[in-house]
Amino acid sequence: MPIRIPDQLPASDVLRKENIFVMPESRASTQEIRPLKILILNLMPKKIETETQFLRLLSNSPLQLDIELLRIDDRPSKNTPEEHLNAFYRQFDKIKDRNFDGLIITGAPLGLVQFEDVAYWDHLQTIMTWAKHHVTSTLYVCWAAQAGLKLLYNLPKRTRKEKLSGVYHHDIHQPFHPILRGFDDTFLAPHSRYADFDADYLGEHTDLDILATSDVAGVYLASTKDKRNVFVTGHPEYDANTLHNEYVRDLGEGMEPMIPVNYYPNDNPDNLPRASWRSHGHLLFSNWLNYCVYQQTPFDLEHFSEDKFTKDD
């Protein structure tokens, strides 16, 4: 089944060339199907690139999805044309009275910034709190996972001494958990962060189900018992060349970044990197949509607040 996005969104052409079924709004409006309402809060600077990455993963599902894009505030963007933001993004005030089946909060390049110094921190907390009563399941990615742990468990910001960058092996811990359905015992996933997600620390200070970890990268995947909050500390949405572009950017800024681990063939940046994480990235998003969203969400979103989740709030 297709993802439903605005007809003129730049990602449409990219995804169609990849033979991904994208349904324009004009056609979807004629179908008598209740699509899942998915909201994406995009905190990344290069929003068009990030939109395409997440939409690609969301497309690998038999469910029809109605995608809406949310911006955190109205400050001008250095990396995305204002006309694009005005055309395709909504402000929180415009959607705050509605309910959604799923919410994805992306990462952000704020690894070395304290939460209270983030310009939109208060607003982000407002949105995360709103999601408790208006969203069936929220997926927190990378920096957003750290922010979500702060909001839900009051965990302080924990920062690594050196940036974690590369593609790491992970082990699964609850093979029969729905989010891990179909996962291999070990799998690869990319990371690019300063945040520290130590498995023992999260196990001691939260009631989360720890689903996948790395000896080097720590926790990769965790979920609340009710699957309404899912934390992904890496970047399963990354393209094959995203880590390379970040590495080249840091070199150009006079930094001395370490070569991303297990990424370039023979660890040589002159070699073309190849993605080794796509299959599990698609599987993760497909499982989230099916088991955390579709199987849990009320059919009538208008009755969300008095539905099955009311007793949990």
TrEMBL record:
Substrate binds at residues 163, 192, 249. GO terms for biological process: L-methionine biosynthetic process from homoserine via O-succinyl-L-homoserine and cystathionine. It holds the Pfam family HTS. The keyword Cell cycle does not apply. The active site is at 142 (acyl-thioester intermediate), 235 (proton acceptor), 237. Its EC number is 2.3.1.46. Its main location: cytoplasm. One of its GO terms (molecular function) is homoserine O-acetyltransferase activity. Transfers a succinyl group from succinyl-CoA to L-homoserine, forming succinyl-L-homoserine. Belongs to the MetA family. This is Homoserine O-succinyltransferase. It comes from Vibrio ziniensis.
